[in-house]
Amino acid sequence: MAGQTPGMFGSSRNVAVNSTLQNEAKSDFSDKQTLLAVLQFLKKNNLKGTEDLLKREAGIKDDDVIPQTAPPSETDVSHALAAYKSADDPSLYMDHYTDLKNFIESCLDVHKVELSMVLYPVFVHMYLELVYNEHERHAIIFFQKFSIEQEDYYQDDLNQLSTVTKKEHMKGNQLMENFKGSRFVIKMSRDSYNHLKRHLQEKKMKPLLNIIQEHLFIDVFDGVPRSKQQIQATSGAVLGENERDANKAKVFYGLLKEPEINMPVEEEEESVEVTDKSKKKKVKKDPLLTKKAKNDPHAPQLNRIPLPEMKDNDKLEKITAYREALRRVKVGRDHPPTICFYTMLNSYKGVTSLDIAEDSSLMAAGFADSTIRVFSMTPQPLRCMKIASSLEGIDKEADDVLERMMDDRTASDSKLLLGHSGPVYAARFSRDRKYLISSSEDGTVRLWSLFTWTNLVCYKGHNHPVWDVEFSPYGHYFVSVGQDRVARLWSTDHHQPLRMFAGHLSDVDCVKFHPNSNYVVTGSSDRTIRLWDILNGNCVRLLTGHKGSVQVLAFTPDGRFLASAGVDCMVLLWDIASGTLLAQMKGHTETVYSLCFGRDGAALASGGLDCSVKLWDIARVIQEIDTEADISIPSSVNVNDNPKLLLESYSTKATPVLALHFTRRNLLIASGPAQIPESTKT
Amino acid sequence: MSAPPAKSSPRDAQVMGAILKDLGVADYEPRLINQMLEFVYRYVTDVLDDAKVYSNHASKKSIDTEDVKLAVQCRMDHSFTTPPPKDLLMEVSKHKNGQVLPLIKPYTGLRLPPDRYCLSSTNYKLAGQRTKKQSRIQIGLPMGQFPQRLSLNPLVHGKVSGSGSQTALTVVTKSMGMPTVTLVTKSSQQQHQQQMKPAIRISSGLNPLGGAKSFNLTSPSINIQGASQTLMGQPSLGQMSLKRKHEDDDYDNPT
């Protein structure tokens, strides 16, 4: 018989039920329904002992008992929600939770920090079970008591969950669906895990065991338990940390092999006597180029993804870029940069995005009134291309045909682009400065020509606001991300996307191409960063550690490292090859909206809503990387959060920094809309 | 940016302030309360109006909870669409990511989608070329002949105005977007010796620029496709449309 002894009344019921069982034929399917009905009746009348006994005797599992109040719809959500059904007494939950908390407190310090990671998901799932089983009052009390004890970075999610108090609320809540649909991942050392398992088996707390088995995924690793600092570094995402397998795939993070261009090496003090022709005919292979010509094992093949071929224009551009790079200034620990700040006046509440072209000659500003303005940053004004009839008259073989085709009468310092029907959230230039791509709240992505200053194509695919868009470094492809949680890869000549990267649990806020154009990285409001492979659409890296939405990303020029920042005011540096966090750079006090690496990758500039530009020492981080550590064991990865990483901090008076850009010579250009201080403040 | 609504403000405004406080929103402009109030008012009136319509439709005396539920559901599907669920997204993306990235054709100038998807064409049509309403297509016939027309098509929606008189013009009214085939046969004393050739004129529904010009014919200049009177397949006859056909949909797989 069962451990519990039912009361007098209960035992008589027990006997009656037993006899009913014996009378009817065993394991007759239609009788099963009768059994279920009996179970329902017992449950209604709260005859717990009898019910358990009957269940055990008849061999009926919990899942078979369908509550009468179950929603009739067949959606996955309600199926998944039905798993929350539990016949347990609501007050037990509080006791179990407190018990678990006390147990964790009583553990050794080494295990305590690891085990305390279990508390948050257990709390959430317990709360949701209470709500599903319609124990509203208990749920609210439970929530109020324990929610404040959870970590800070979960408070936002908990606020959202607090609105779910009735079963009807559950269906619409996206956060809830996230919790229900996937398992919360926790990485734990084997010792702590065994400890926990032993305790739970001893205590036999059924609902707790159920929750842990179904909703949690504990990734056990063999090694020393992690310290609080290490755990804090990588926790914070909506669904816990990343599993070991998530970062296993090989990533080609090297740069593409540049085609050899015969660079005529000109010297500054070219004397007149030396004939130009002879100098130009001499083809010199520059040592920098020959170094890159060696095959980098980490670089992808040139034909891995189709890329547009290099045209003559592109080659000329490369030569100019190379020449400018020779005159580059060093920016790093002992060489603070020169910063040129462009302030946008009279438009604080209007500017939603800023971007500067790669050669620093153009700046694009997207506004909340759905316009885009392109400014010229050089003394040369912006001109429009001549109309078709005039174009026919010019000599195509002339050297300055590119000048001749522009109409000087239309020259002006800035051009206005109209076309969107909602605030423009991103406006980016292509590398060759022929196109501008923009995305807006109206769900469209528009391609503009910077020769005719007109809208060429409107790409419709997202039905929700598109938060960011970016051109590939080699042109032809661009990727857009939005509120619908997917990133889409398009090419300019297809009206539909080529790839869809789905996997994020919440809006995707920012996107960047890798310098070799084979990968795309996205940052999202679910506080994770994902690296996607364009070739097959797989997510090859999942990086957790941010405690707030990720708003901006940046790759180092050599493609090895990724910097990210967002609402949690921290700038994190990741190693792409292994998917580990290298450094945490704290210093900002408000959301960071812009990041830019110096052209040689030794320094990182960041700017945000706290109206300051901060410079970080990346060379030091790279120096201090522990190459001996075994990255497969999470506890041997140490995160560098040396306060000395902050080199300089420059404040503006009242202008948030929305755009940062290092020119080819390492001059830092920053830009932002001037924030006029409110005269009346309560 | 502002304190919660003062005690003297209307109760609804205070409710809004309490909602914001509950959700942890501490900093907001005072305009937000007004915006929320407006939204709530508009939403509730819309839902109740819809519920009234539904309850009338079901011939009920007054609004029921079910009517309200239905009204809320319809409005949710209409205005407040949420992004698609994750499983659907994963499925679609799996399908799309399975396709190979299309190759890039070399030596092309501007790489843009086909003209249909670009915004590069004009957004106007000159008025001078059309003398009648756009939906009509004129078939002009030589003067002085009695046209005998068979218009055989189940496709013509509009009415066919026959010409019993001596007018040379017959006008066929048809709706836009439907290519039609009108079989026109002429018989005349003058052309008895000629064979009766059915003249078939096809025009696609999207009226090409010159489509509605009135023909001034002395000889049948209508396209003649042959003696068969059968209704031939539309696509093969549609070749004379001035617009580029839809083969551009296959531009990834060159034929």
Automatic annotation (TrEMBL), chain A:
Top-level taxon in the UniProt lineage: Eukaryota
CDD domains: TAF5_NTD2, WD40
Single Gene Ontology MF annotation: RNA polymerase II general transcription initiation factor activity
Residue ranges constituting the TFIID subunit TAF5 NTD2 domain according to the UniProt record: 88-216
InterPro entries assigned to the protein according to its UniProt record, in alphabetical order: LisH (IPR006594), TFIID_NTD2 (IPR007582), TFIID_NTD2_sf (IPR037264), WD40/YVTN_repeat-like_dom_sf (IPR015943), WD40_PAC1 (IPR020472), WD40_repeat_CS (IPR019775), WD40_repeat_dom_sf (IPR036322), WD40_rpt (IPR001680)
Keywords from the UniProt entry: Nucleus, Repeat, Transcription, Transcription regulation, WD repeat
WD repeat residues: 417-450, 459-500, 501-542, 543-584, 585-618
PANTHER family per UniProt: CANNONBALL-RELATED, TRANSCRIPTION INITIATION FACTOR TFIID
Name of the molecule in the record: Transcription initiation factor TFIID subunit 5
Organism: Pinctada imbricata (Atlantic pearl-oyster)
UniProtKB/TrEMBL annotation, chain B:
Principal subcellular localisation of the protein: nucleus
Any one Gene Ontology cellular component term annotated for this protein: SAGA complex
Keywords of this entry: Nucleus, Transcription, Transcription regulation
Pfam families: TFIID-31kDa
Gene Ontology molecular function, alphabetical: protein heterodimerization activity; RNA polymerase II general transcription initiation factor activity; transcription coactivator activity
Gene3D superfamilies registered for this protein in UniProt: Histone, subunit A
Protein location: Nucleus
Biological process annotations from GO: RNA polymerase II preinitiation complex assembly
Family: Belongs to the TAF9 family.
Protein name: Transcription initiation factor TFIID subunit 9
Species annotation: Pinctada imbricata
